[in-house]
Write a structure and sequence with these properties.
Two copies of one chain form a homodimer. Chain A has two domains: 66 residues, Winged helix-like DNA-binding domain superfamily/Winged helix DNA-binding domain (Arc Repressor Mutant, subunit A, Orthogonal Bundle), CATH 1.10.10.10; 158 residues, GntR ligand-binding domain-like (Four Helix Bundle (Hemerythrin (Met), subunit A)). Helices cover 71% and strands 3% of the residues of chain A. Chains A and B meet through helix 1, helix 3, helix 4, helix 5 and helix 8 of A and helix 1, helix 3, helix 4, helix 5 and helix 8 of B. Chain B binds a DNA duplex through helix 3.
DNA sequence: TTATTATAATGGTCTAACCATTATAATACT
DNA sequence: AGTATTATAATGGTTAGACCATTATAATAA
C-alpha cells in the first residue's frame, strides 16, 4: 500500500536538490556553484557530507570540480560520456563481448545509414565527400596511415549519425565507438589492401545515401562494419 | 609526445585500485570489502577521502553500501541501471525528446524481433504464448487492467530481447523501457479498443517469430511500437 | 614592459569524535 | 523450553576544525 519511505541520507538530499536545480533551469551549464564553505552553510551540513554529494554529481556528469582560485563546481552540459563509461564497465566485467558489441554495431550503423539516405541535405553529402577524399589520401600512403584512416572512418560514421538529427543514435554510436576503440583496437589489423577495401565500402555507402536508396545504404553499412569486425576477429585468432 | 601526467587525487587512486580488483577477479560479486576503518588503514588515507572513493564506486554501480552490523561495501554485479540513469539524465536535460527515443525504439524492437525470428528455441515460443495468454486476459477485462497489460507487453518485448542472447540488445531495450515508462507514462492513453489492437499486433509478431520470418517480424514489431507511440503523442496533444 | 614573486581563494586531505542503524547476543517473561 | 524484549557492539553517516596543494590574480622587481 505504501512506498518505501524516503531515504534520509543527507548527501542524497543535497544531490537531489542540486540536480533538480539544474533540470529546472535554476542552474545552467557553465555556471559555478558557491564555494564549498558557502554551500555547506546554505545546506547547513558539514563539508565532508557536501563533498560526498558533489562527488556523486561529478560522477553523474552533472558538474565538474575545478581546483584553485576561480575553481569550484561548474555545471556541465550533459553528454554521452557516462553512457560510454557504463557500457565500458559492462564490457570489462565480461557481461558484453566483442562479438556482442560488434553485432549490435552492424545493426545500428545499418539503421543510421538508412535514415541518412532518406534524410540528408546537400551540405551533408559535401561533408562526407570531403572526408572520403581525406580517407583516400591515407589509403594511398598505406599502412603507416592506418590510425589516421581509422579516425576518418569514425568521423564518417559519426557524420552520418548526425544526419539523422536524433541524439539517441548519435549517443549510442558514440558509445559504441568509444568502447570499440578503447578495448579492441589492439585486435585491428589493416594493411594497404584492407584499407582500400574499406575505402571502397565507404564510397559505395555514401553513394547510396546520396541517391536516397535506404535499403542499399543499410546493406552496405552493415557489410562495411562486418568486414571491420572480421579484421578484428582475424587478429584476435592470430594471437 | 607525452600524455597528461597521472592525476594525483588520492580518492581517484583508491577508486581505480578497487575497480581493478573487481575486474581482475580479486574481488567478486557478493563479497564484502573490509570495514571503512580497516580500509582506511590499508590505503593509509583518511576516512573522508575513502568515503569519497566509495561514493564514486557506488554511483558507478560497482558496489552497494549497506548500513548497520554486517553491513559494509558489497561488490555488485554490474547491470544496466547506470546506462538507464544516464539516458534518463539526457532526457531530463532535454537533449533527448520523446520523439527521438520513440524513433530509436521502433528500430531496435524491429531488429530484435528479426533476430529472434532467426534464432528462437521452442521454449522461447512457449514462454511468449504464455505471456500472450495473460495479456489476452487483461484485454478482456478492459481499460481497468491497462497497467497490467502494459507490464506484460513490456515482458514480451524483454523476452524477445533475451532470445537474441546478446546482452547489448537486452541492456539497450531495458534502458529504453525504463525511461519510456519513467517519463512518458503520463502520455499513454489506452482503452479497450486500443488494448485489443495492441494485443493483435503482439500475436502477429509472435507468429512471425515462430515462423522464422524475420522481415515480417521486423515490420510488425515496428508497427506495434509505432502504434504505441501514436497513443502517447495523441495524449500529449490532448493536454 | 616584462618577468618574478607574493597573496589569497578554492578544492583536497587529515584527525578525532559522536550519531544512527541494525544483526546478534543476552535477558526477562510466560 | 520457548518467545518476546532489551542491551550490545559493529558498521556506515555526519560533524567540526585544522592544514595542505593548486592556481588566478595582484603586487613587485628587473
Amino acid at each position: 500500500m505504501f512506498q518505501t519511505a524516503k531515504q534520509t541520507k543527507v548527501f542524497q538530499d543535497v544531490v537531489e536538490q542540486i540536480q533538480e536545480a539544474i533540470f529546472d533551469g535554476r542552474l545552467t551549464a557553465g555556471q559555478t556553484l558557491p564555494a564549498e564553505r558557502e554551500l555547506k552553510e546554505m545546506f547547513n551540513i558539514s563539508r565532508g557530507t557536501l563533498r560526498e554529494a558533489l562527488r556523486v554529481l561529478e560522477q553523474k556528469g552533472l558538474i565538474e570540480i575545478k581546483l584553485g582560485v576561480g575553481g569550484g563546481s561548474v555545471v556541465r552540459t550533459v553528454d554521452t560520456d557516462q553512457i560510454s563509461e557504463s557500457l565500458g564497465l559492462l564490457i570489462r566485467s565480461q557481461k558484453v563481448s566483442l562479438n556482442h558489441l560488434a553485432q549490435f554495431r552492424e545493426d545500428v550503423e545499418g539503421i543510421v545509414a538508412a535514415h541518412a539516405a532518406k534524410n540528408h541535405a546537400a551540405e551533408d553529402i559535401r561533408k562526407l565527400k570531403y572526408l572520403l577524399a581525406k580517407a583516400h589520401a591515407c589509403v594511398r600512403k598505406g599502412g603507416s596511415h592506418r590510425n589516421m584512416f581509422i579516425d576518418i572512418d569514425k568521423q564518417i560514421h559519426m557524420t552520418i549519425a548526425q544526419i539523422t538529427a536524433n541524439p539517441v543514435y548519435i549517443s549510442v554510436l558514440h558509445s559504441i565507438h568509444d568502447n570499440i576503440h578503447r578495448y579492441y583496437d589492439r585486435f585491428l589489423s589493416m594493411q594497404k589492401p584492407e584499407l582500400e577495401e574499406n575505402y571502397n565500402d565507404l564510397c559505395d555507402m555514401v553513394d547510396a545515401i546520396e541517391n536516397g536508396d535506404d535499403e542499399m545504404a543499410r546493406k552496405l553499412a552493415q557489410q562495411h562494419v562486418k568486414r571491420f569486425n572480421q579484421y578484428m576477429k582475424k587478429r584476435e585468432e592470430e594471437k
